[in-house]
Amino acid sequence: MATPEHTPDGRGYDSWIGFFQHANDYWRNNMPMQATGEIDNCLNKFKDLFMHNATYRGGVQDGISYSPKCLKDPEAHIECYEEYLFKMRALAIIHEHGASKTESPLFLFYAFHLVHTPLQVPKEYLSKLDQMVAAAGGQNISSRNRRLYAAMNLYMDEAIGEVVKALKATSMWEDTLVVFTSDNGGPIYVPGSANNYPLKGGKYSDWEGGVRTNAFMSGGFIPEASRGTKFSGVVSVADWYGTFCELAGVESTDHDALAANVWLKKKRSAFTCSGRQRSPMAVHSQQ
């Protein structure tokens, strides 16, 4: 985060729980070597987990993740799992909003750490996965990392189900728009263990497997005529910004960007194309 304005507080969120780096240990909230392939004395030791709201700015010292049992043997208790904390906070926000009976809308941004490295999941989800594979007549997943990756997807699927259940229990579902999206394709390197078939490539590549992902919208807000339909055109994750602004009835125009140097305007003729007009195309490598 370059400045406080880049934090969730600076972006206008009323509260948030999360971390500032990108590959936290799901149990200990530091950044282990197996997640990034590097040893960093600061990130490997520093606990990166924070909770902010209108009256509190600090770490989750009083949260379950810092309780004695989580400090001593976190993997023995599912409530010490980082994604469990995120899920429970999301569910609490939904129930608090539903109970308030307010006419103000709720915007909830649930950014899963799943299924990012390090590959870690509560043991019971590995057992659940094995049972599901066996019940479907499949063979046990021989790859340790692939098995972990699949079990993490199972945990995320159940968490999404709990969110939907909470929205329905609070009578909010019929007025809710759910958007599920991803920032990049699955990692096919070790220990990523994703599979983007039939697309070529994966995370860190500019092939479709790295930059093209699935997304869907759900919720009672979707018109009945649009439910179950598909769109195969090109959509960028940045397009959701304009979509949400349109739904909220606010202006989507962002701050004007400033040119790096005024002298560029005098030199730009060298880059001006002549002849047939061409459509611009930009390729951004998702990482």
From TrEMBL:
The alphabetical list of record keywords is:
Calcium, Glycoprotein, Metal-binding
| A Pfam family reported for this protein in Swiss-Prot or TrEMBL | Sulfatase
Q: Where is the Sulfatase N-terminal domain?
A: 10-250
User: Sorted alphabetically, which InterPro entries does this protein's record hold?
Assistant: Alkaline_phosphatase_core_sf (IPR017850), ARSB (IPR047115), Sulfatase_N (IPR000917)
The superkingdom listed in its UniProt entry is Eukaryota
Q: Name one GO molecular function term.
A: metal ion binding
The name of this protein is Sulfatase N-terminal domain-containing protein
Task: Tell me what organism the protein belongs to.
Answer: Polarella glacialis
Starting at the broadest rank, the lineage of the source organism is: Eukaryota, Sar, Alveolata, Dinophyceae, Suessiales
